Amino acid sequence: MKTFGWLRRPGVWAVTSALLLGGFAFAGSSAAETNTAPTRQAGVQIVRAPGDSGGCDLQATVAPSTSESGLDVQRIIARGKLVAGIDTNSYLWGFRDPNSGDIQGFDIDLVRALATAILGDPSKVTLLAVPTDQRIPALQSGLVDVVVRTFTHNCDREKQVSFSADYFQTGQQILVPKNSQVTGLNSSIQGRRICTAKGSTAEALLQTSQYKSQEVPVENQLDCLVLMQLGQVDATITDGALAAGLNAQDKSLKIVPGTLDTEFYAVAVKLGATDLAARINAVLQSYISGGDWQRSYQKWIRPTTGQDGAPPTAHYTR
Fold first, then answer.
1. Which of 1, 4, 129, 194 is 20 to 30 A from residue 220's alpha carbon, by CA?
2. Where do the Solute-binding protein family 3/N-terminal domain residues begin and end (predicted)?
C-alpha cells in the first residue's frame, strides 16, 4: 500500500518533532489498555453534536447498490486504486504499527473492505493521511476518493460533502491528568487551556460553550497528547473513541466520565458522488451483516474500552 504524510516516531510517549511532507501526517504508537464508560455526565450542560440541528435528516442516506456503472466508481476502477484519506495519528483507528510498520486500525479495516469490494484486492488502495481540518478540502479538490477518518457526520458538513450510512456511534469526552480538577464542560474549565483538533466537532463544541477557556487548536489529536505531557494544556476534548486511544498511550491521564454529545462516524465522499456513496453503503451492509464490523471492533476497540459495541442502524430514505 502506498502512503504519504509527515512522520512521527512510534512509542508510548508522543514526540514533538515531525518531518513535514505536503501537510499530511502518518504516525505510530504502542499502548497499554484502559477502560472508560461513555455515560452521559450528571449535573452538567449537555449539548447536541455541533452541526446536527441544521435542518437536514442525518438518517437519510442513499440506498445500497452494487452497481459499478456510475462515474465516480468507474473512475476508481479505471485507476486501479482507491485513494483514501485516513488518520495515522489515532491509536486503534488509524496508526502505524511500530513493529510491522503497517498502517492499521478500525478505520483501516473498513478502507480495505472497500478496496476489496470495488477492486477485488485489499491492497489496491493509496492511504493518504490528512489532518483533521483538511478532510473536506481533500474531497473537494479530488485529492481523495473517500475519507475514512473518524469523520463525524453532521448537517454543516452535509452541505460540503456527501456521506455514507453511519458506521459508528460516539460522543465528545474530556481527557485530563489524573490529578485534574476538571469535571466536565462546566465551570471547572473556566480559564483553563483546552486542546482540540482544528476543524473538529470538539473545536466547535468548545467555541459554543458558555464557559470561557483558553482554546489551543492543533493539527491532530495526538498533538494534544504531546502538549498534555509537556504540561502546556490542562485538558483535551475529543471523540470518546479517540480519547480512549490517547489514554491507552499514557496511563497518567484519565477520561472524565460522561459524554458531552452524541455523534456518528460515516464515510465521506465528494458532494454529489451518490453512485459511490451507494456502493459504499452496499459494502457497509455486507461488512456489518457478515460479521466483519464486529470482528474489527473486538480486535481494536473493545480491549481498550471494555465495552461491547454494535453499529448504528442504517436508514435508507432517499
1. 1
2. 81-304
